[in-house]
Amino acid sequence: MRIVVALGGNALLRRGEPMTADNQRANIRIATEQIAKIHPGNELVIAHGNGPQVGLLSLQAAAYTSVSPYPLDVLGAETEGMIGYIIEQELGNLLDFEVPFATLLTQVEVDANDPAFKHPTKPIGPVYSKEEAEKLAAEKGWTIAPDGDKYRRVVASPLPKRIFEIRPIKWLLEKSAIVICAGGGGIPTMYGEDGKLKGIEAVIDKDLCSSLLASQLDADLLVIATDVNAAFIDYGKPTQKAIGQAHPDDMEKLGFAAGSMGPKVQAACEFARRTGKTAVIGSLSDIEAIVQGTAGTRISTATPGITYL
């Protein structure tokens, strides 16, 4: 099978954990131990989040006042390289020496008229207390929003329209390479009035970009790996129930929160509709079982309705 695995932020950095290189490597090692189990007989493409990493680089850049801070698209490119390097190394230490790897900087086109630019919603960077966040917002012109009992910077999250490197990704897969790409939803770009491509201050949702990526690669399975073992209704309440299988039409009627499970459900539903294949939302620690069909919330057009675990 050709499988696209979208690693959630918890695969790189757990909530509240210091953003040290050692912590990120330790978390990536846990993810790669699972991914290594599904490599035999399959073609693998790995996408990942990068919100905390971009936020950290942004803060570090702001501390160096001799030059203007680098824009988000450049920071996104930097983190794609950094995270891809660690994934390659940790996964390479688990697989046969002859397995080839490639980390690809991935530019993704967005529409300049996307309404998301008027309503920033995508959190990036570390969490802050309300007082810290308000101070930073005043100093740097940020938009901030609540994130649980903390606050984070938010930026526009336009929809992905085109993945420019889709052809080289396919070429690499044809040569049996494991490809790490579309990190953080890809590097957001658009064409200016002069007809030239340029980067922009935005963050594309990683799961929506992974869905587009999986569709354009004709993937057999999209795995959206997160920190819960399924999508739930009434999550966190005594009445919560885990969804085992669902048709996209029925899944979307449940109204998942935009700031958490919503984009994952939207991404899974879009992939299922575009391709007629299956997308699964589940735990990072269950990736092997997800591929075997025994774990996670499976979304496809094959069966109407919803069943619960």
From TrEMBL:
GO terms for biological process: L-arginine deiminase pathway. The keyword Transferase applies. GO terms for cellular component: cytosol. CDD domains: AAK_CK. One of its GO terms (molecular function) is carbamate kinase activity. The keyword Nucleus does not apply. Keywords: Kinase, Transferase. Residues 1-282 form the Aspartate/glutamate/uridylate kinase domain. It comes from the Bacteria. InterPro entries: AceGlu_kinase-like_sf, Asp/Glu/Uridylate_kinase, Carb_kinase. NCBIfam families: arcC, PRK12352.1, PRK12354.1. Belongs to the carbamate kinase family. This is Carbamate kinase.
